[in-house]
Amino acid sequence: MTKNVLAIVGSLRAGSVNRATARAAAALAPDDVSLTILPIADVPLYNGDVEDRGLPESVVALHEAVSSADGVIFFTPEYNSSLPAVTKNIIDWLSRPPHALQATPVAAVATTPGGRAGAGVLGHLEPILDHMQGVVRFDSHGIGGYPGKLDEDGELADPDTRAELAAWLGRFAESLDAA
User: Which residues, 6+ apart, have CB-to-CB distance to 93 below 8 Å?
Assistant: First the structure.
């Protein structure tokens, strides 16, 4: 049976390195995994007043997509050693009713230019996910030094990095069987 994994990219930029990593992950996913990148550009900033008036259509679609997924992977950049607003905003909406992330295996992949491979963002993201009710968090994966790992089209091309990502995806897919 094919596992439906949702990729949420914490950057809205078309040329995002983390979007390129998500595309590479989709291509490298095990045969029994379908990894789909969820468009999130229309999700508004979280605002309790907006929520009180009724969830926007884009937020309803976000919750529905996450609820129907077997797992979720956040592909997130690191801004100032922490989460970008886009990633945090999606988490904030998902932390609200109907709590789509409950009992959903969740992980994160951070692709960054520095050698710390997203240690700052992952170090902030993991406790947030651990705090959320019912989230099943899988170990995260960091990719550092990305400028030397991209081809001329901005795609993740380094064979060692792709092999490490594929191996990590395999472990994440196996964890879905146990969840």
Answer: 43, 46, 59, 62, 63
Structure confidence at residue 91 (pLDDT): 95
Overall number of domains in the chain: 1
> pLDDT tens digits for 59-86?
999 999 999 999 999 999 999 999 999 9
Cβ 62 vs Cβ 100: under 8 Å: yes
User: In the chain, where does DSSP find H-type helix?
Assistant: 17-28, 48-53, 57-68, 85-94, 119-131, 159-178
CA angle 89, 50, 94 (to 5 degrees): 35
CATH of residue 21: 3.40.50.360
Q: Collapse the DSSP code of 127 into the 3-class scheme (helix H, G, I; strand E, B; otherwise coil) and give the result.
A: helix
Q: Is the pTM of this model over 0.90?
A: yes
Q: Residue 115: give the domain boundaries.
A: 3-178
